[in-house]
Amino acid sequence: MSQPPPPPPYAASSAQQQQGLSTSPSSHHPPHNPHHHPQGLSLPPAPPVNDMMDDMRLFLRTITAFRNYDVQARTSLIVREQNFKRLPARHQQLLAAANVSLNEIFSNYHNGVTCNQQFLTAMCDAGAELFEGYWPDVDPSTIPQDEPSPMDVDKVFSTLRQFMRDWSAEGAQERSVAYGPILHALTTSLFPNRATRNAVRVLVPGAGLCRLSVELALLGFTCQANEFSYHMLIAGHYAQNHLSEQHQHRLYPYVDNTCNMFHRADQFFPVDVPDVCVMDAVDELNANGMHFGDLSMVAGDFTEVYRKPEHRGAWNVVASSFFLDTAHNILEYLEVIMGALAPGGYLVNVGPLLYHFADSLSSALSPETPGSASVDGVQSIELSLDELLGAAKALGYIIHTPPQILETSYTGNNRSMKQMMYRVAFFVLQKPYDETR
């Protein structure tokens, strides 16, 4: 799927924006940020509408999934409430004797769902800017409306937890492992001089809600975020451009989690977002005589976008957090990254090797339900860490920093009786200075 880029949340350099917009329809909306202003560009025309019909329908389907969150959440709520009410009288008396108030539980449940929907509705309203920016001459009411798939709905619930991870104090511990080693490596051993970081071009593939790319720009780097999922693009746009006050929204990311609780209050634990207002952080930098690095965003498949000639040797760093294992063919990722890196550039990685498409192998056995695949027809290959690093060396990478193993959860609930932990690998690979591939 070819997706158009959203308006960059902060003004990038002219060359950056031309690279980001060169393969997709242009955006005519300025970013919502008073501190940076877009520079004049000769933007490419949008392609014919028919070529983008699938993208428009997918975008609107994603918006519908976000707007219908409360329908899905309340359906589950009602079923759970009815199950309690169907209990025999003696069992309801037991709960009453244990001071379990069903009225209080389900009142809090309703309130949590309502707050979440208010947040998602605000996000969707902001998403209308993206649609107009992508397709300025198209009336969205003329586009056929598709019902969200079960996967679309699941991603809505996971997006709430992604906001907890990326933009709340509750997610600080996960960010310290997922992003901390990358930020530390770039600011200490690799590029310790802040004054020269604006010349260091950092690419963040699989950027999600863009906290890592924002942190890099706050540290003075020129950064470009890349994302493929419309759920993440819509949510990331809102996070960067519309969260204008600290603790602007209160979310209840665990309100639908009714299992493995120590305490009922854990289900209704609130999370305030954002923990850091980017605009305030930029003001603080300016007050201290420091600059905010350039920040742009490009939508689309990583390999399709960054194997293009204009990205060859264009990046000093690829900062990869929980990204490499999203590939059908992880070797293709290594090749594309090698080509995009400038001589002497770095791949700085933190993540597991979950291999997101490994489950698609079962569908390959059924001709009725073919799985997705890479352009080479590869559905999934799964390498061990040592095999991956061996292949990287064979491709020409130098192991600059050997793997360090760290433990972390991913959008985890530290109040839950169930904890899923990853032992992730942090390592740094370097492209040789004498290589031009």
UniProtKB/TrEMBL annotation:
Domain of life assignment: Eukaryota
GO biological process, one term: methylation
Keyword set includes Transmembrane: no
Broad class of enzyme this protein falls into: transferase
UniProt-recorded Gene Ontology molecular function terms: carnosine N-methyltransferase activity
UniProt name for this protein: carnosine N-methyltransferase
Low complexity composition-biased segments: 11-27
Family under the similarity heading: Belongs to the carnosine N-methyltransferase family.
Keywords (A to Z) from UniProt: Methyltransferase, S-adenosyl-L-methionine, Transferase
Amino acid composition bias (Pro residues), ranges on this chain: 1-10
Regions that span the bilayer: none
Region (Disordered): 1-49
Enzyme Commission code: 2.1.1.22
Statement: the UniProt record of this protein carries the keyword Lipid metabolism: no
Organism: Bodo saltans
